[in-house]
Design brief:
This protein is of the alpha/beta class. The protein contains ten helices and twelve strands. The protein is globular.
């Protein structure tokens, strides 16, 4: 089965420190990511960035890579050739404001901050300018957070863990994580499936690359999933989740080196 599409996370996967496309995990200059993109171009394989970042940021990177599609705000929407499709279910922008503003008006972020005081805060400054989701950082129990949402009557929302990040908090021991408050049905896996259907790709013709538990769920939507080495190294929860999947490989390389490894390995196997 030929490879037709690669879904890839950005931070911690395709990108190196400080979001650089040309840095490896240690910060040294690297062409691994560019070579992986070139290999896909030569083989006629589409690359779809799937990120928790807001739309303008993801659009710009996809444009620089010469790719027509991207997934943004943790799977709240995808775009193909400038046409956007929201995947937020019954929650839609309306006269009450954006989905972000509707969540804020409910008091949902405030309730989470109160429950997890000192353990959760906005992921400054990247939480600004969002319209479909809220972005936090900290270290919390996601199941407890989602139980709180259900108790409050916010069962149409969920908090998802988008993996370990490098921004410390003085009140948090160890690595902080990035969290997204999104409509309940939203996920990168759902967005990847929706994009593949729109493009006419069979799941077996697709692979995905990522570094977090949320990324790992995309394994259900593709033929094979690659976890870059830095993911399980930094996140015990991700390490514990890996045995549940039979189509997942942990790369030897970290960040962009792992992305390149995933691309080349797959292209060689499917020649």
């Amino acid at each position: 089965m030929p490879l037709r599409c690669v879904y890839t996370d950005l931070d911690g996967t395709l990108l190196g420190p400080r979001g650089s496309l040309f840095r490896d995990a240690e910060g040294a200059f690297s062409m691994a990511q560019a070579r992986g993109i070139e290999a896909c171009h030569r083989a006629g394989v589409e690359i779809v960035v799937m990120s928790g970042r807001r739309e303008p940021q993801v659009h710009e990177l996809a444009r620089l890579m010469g790719q027509p599609s991207y997934i943004y705000e943790a799977g709240c929407a995808y775009a193909i050739e400038g046409e956007t499709t929201l995947l937020t279910g019954d929650l839609q922008p309306n006269e009450d404001g954006t989905i972000y503003e509707q969540m804020e008006a409910r008091g949902t972020p405030r309730a989470l901050f109160e429950r997890f005081e000192g353990k959760l805060e906005y992921h400054e400054p990247w939480h600004h300018g969002r319209v479909l989701s809220h972005l936090f950082r900290g270290k919390v129990d996601v199941e407890e957070a989602n139980a709180l949402l259900a108790e409050r009557g916010d069962g149409d929302l969920r908090l998802l863990d988008n993996g370990a990040i490098g921004t410390p908090m003085p009140t948090v021991e160890g690595r902080t994580h990035a969290y997204h408050l999104v409509p309940r049905m939203v996920s990168k896996a759902n967005a990847a499936s929706a994009h593949a259907r729109a493009q006419g790709y069979d799941p077996s013709e697709c692979i995905a690359v990522g570094d977090s538990i949320e990324d790992l769920e995309v394994a259900a939507a593709v033929g094979h999933f690659f976890v870059v080495a830095n993911g399980p190294e930094r996140d015990a929860g991700l390490r514990a989740a890996l045995p549940a999947w039979d189509n997942v490989t942990v790369t030897e390389g970290s960040n962009g080196d792992g992305f390149y490894e995933a691309i080349v390995t797959t292209l060689i196997e499917r020649r």
